[in-house]
Each structure stands twice: as C-alpha cells, then as structure tokens.
Amino acid sequence: MKYEHHLFVCTNQKSEVGRDVVKALKKEIKKQGLSKKLNRALPTGCLDECKHCKKGCGAALIVYPEGAIYGDVQPDDAPAIVREHLLHGRVVSKLLLD
C-alpha cells in the first residue's frame, strides 16, 4: 500500500505533549476516514525544531512529502491539520515554523 502522507511527531522528553498530539492525530485521521490513505502519525525522536518554536511548549510535526514543519502543535490542533492539510491539501499557515 502506498501512503499519500507520512506524519512524524516529536515525542522526546522535552515535548511531552507530543504523545498527546500523536493520539489526537490518530483519532482525527480515523474520524475523517483517512486511515487507508495516510500512514498513521508516527512518534519520533527529536526533530531539532524546538529552538524554532514560538512558545516552546508544543510538539514539532513534519508532514511528508511536502516537508511542511509545524511547531508548537497542541492536541487540539489535530482536527485543523487533518482537515486542512491532509484532506484538502491546504497548509495550516498559523502553525508553520518560519
């Protein structure tokens, strides 16, 4: 099976919220019926993006193949990311890292 997107979420110890973001993304992907088109949200080690986060308290998230890097992602951002970026192909600009 070929997936359209891969999501990598920082779940290192500095970003404890990362695990909650992974859970929220998985839930929203399933809710939107995208499980067969998307590789699930994959927890990963440090993405070295923390230094770029605006608040420094959320998780970093990279969406491939676009290479869009979101920062300070909170669990409640999952619906917008899944709906806008993954379902409709529109990057959620307010969450993008500079």
What report would you give on this structure?
This is (2Fe-2S) ferredoxin domain-containing protein. By secondary structure, this protein is of the alpha+beta class. It has one domain: 3-Layer(aba) Sandwich (Glutaredoxin). 26% of the residues lie in helices and 26% in strands. A four-stranded mixed sheet has the order 2-1-3-4, with helices on one face. α1 (17-31) packs across α2. It is globular, with a radius of gyration of 12 Å. The termini are far apart.
Quick summary:
The chain contains two helices and four strands, in the order βαβββα.
What is the fold's blueprint, element by element?
Blueprint: E1 5-10, H1 17-31, E2 38-44, E3 59-64, E4 68-73, H2 78-87
Parallel strand pairs: 1-2
Antiparallel strand pairs: 1-3, 3-4
CATH fold name? Glutaredoxin
CATH class: Alpha Beta
Global structural class: alpha+beta
Specify Rg, calculated over alpha carbons: 12 Å
Q: State the end-to-end CA separation.
A: 33 Å
Number of domains: 1
Tell me the overall shape. Answer: globular
